[in-house]
Amino acid sequence: MVAAALLAGCSTAAAVLLDLPQEPETSQTAPGIVSRSIPSDTVADRPAIERVTARDSVLALLPRDVADGVDWMEALRRGVIDPRWSVAGEPDGADQHAFGFDFLYKGPDPMFDARFPHSSHVQWVGCDGCHPAIVRYRGEPVTMALINNGEACGQCHGPVSFATSTCVRCHEGMPAFEPITNPLGKDVVLARHGVDENVEAAFPHARFPHWRHRIRYRCTACHPSLFAMRAGSDTLTMAAMRDGAACGACHDGEVAFDLVDCTRCHTAPTEAPANAQ
Asked: What ranges in the chain are assigned the alpha helix state H?
């Protein structure tokens, strides 16, 4: 099997089999900066959900899963959403679909067996989004203690995706689960440093609506090229964004609205925040 993979020239497959580090991909753009060209598709070509701005109306269009959260994979299959792989709208990601294997993590008894749908994850995240920084290619022990501490699966399945307390999503035999009160996830509130209390009171923190971006782009459009996968890992400044980094890679007045109108991001809270970064 190893010989076949090597002869075929598939370095990724060989690295998986041999548990070797991956070769970094080369890029024609500076780190953290993505192409600023406007996506080739027009608004009329895009799913209707992208023209809906009210959170409740968006939620009503999305299918739900057994835990009453958003079933993003079913939304893909039905064509309710068609998120782009990159900011430029390039048809990316086809290569990684070949590695769509699912895994079963055995528990102390069948009720606690956990199923990991790798085939679903490769529809959203590039290999470098998880490997090897979050999980090694094989032989990585994953425990609920790690996950609940924000490691392994817990790096994503918390503030920006479904919470790991919803057991039925991984443990199919679980008889009950914690209900989801916010299926689209909460906005992420960005911390501000070095500002006096008067400014804090008059000028709200910036809020990032993760759900609004997710119906338009797959995770790999922003992670990890623009933002690390772990919440709170990035330090954002307006100066850097104006130079095209982080949010500024898209919010330049061409791909998305520019950074001139402060109230587009600095808005008063309408819900409890997911976290402060």
From this structure: 2-7, 11-18, 55-61, 72-78, 118-121, 127-130, 144-148, 197-202, 210-214, 238-242
The DSSP bridge pattern shows strands 114-116 and 207-208 to be unpaired
Write down the pTM of the prediction. 0.70
Spatial separation of the C-alpha atoms in residues 9 and 36, rounded to whole Å: 33
Tens digits of residue pLDDT in 21-49: 343 333 333 333 333 444 556 677 899 99
The two tokens of residue 49 are 């959900």
* Range 212-231 burial, b when 16+ CB lie within 10 A, else e: bbbbbbbbbbbbbbbbebbb
Q: Is 163 exposed, middle or buried (0-12, 13-18, 19+ CB in 10 A)?
A: middle
Angle (CA) 164 169 170, round 5°: 80
Check if the beta carbon of residue 134 is closer than 8 Å to that of residue 231. no
